[in-house]
Amino acid sequence: MTIKWKDNLTDQLCEAFLLMKDKDEMYAFLEDVATIGEIKALSQRLEVARLLSKGLTYPQIAQKTGASTATISRVKKCLEHGTNGYNIAIERFEIKE
Questions:
Q1: What are the backbone angles phi and psi of residue 49, rounded to the nearest 5°?
Q2: What distance in Å separates the CA atoms of residue 8 and residue 26, rounded to the nearest whole number?
Q3: Cβ distance 44 to 66 under 8 Å?
């Protein structure tokens, strides 16, 4: 059973993210809308995705990020079979650098 998660409320959340004008506004919004633990977990997953895309091994990634092998495996599955969100972000980071 697929849970429908895209709705008016999640649309509103996405729009709120897009309306933030700079990193300071984004930090303020994130701190209000999520726990520090949730923010750190999302940040860790993005870093895991970046390191996987560079070809690092699970043990190397676990050592660098503190992520569990379960988290690394989940992120790898998203990179390979997901909706391409991680790949878009990683590609745009590379362009920015």
A1: -60, -45
A2: 21
A3: yes
Q: What pTM value is reported for the model?
A: 0.90
Residues in the chain: 97
Give buried/exposed letters for 52-84 (b at 16+ CB in 10 A, else e).
bbeebebeebbeebebeeebbeebbebbeeeee
| Whole-angstrom Cα Rg for the chain | 15
Give CA–CA dist 67/82, Å, rounded: 19
pLDDT at 97: 66
Structure confidence at residue 94 (pLDDT): 83
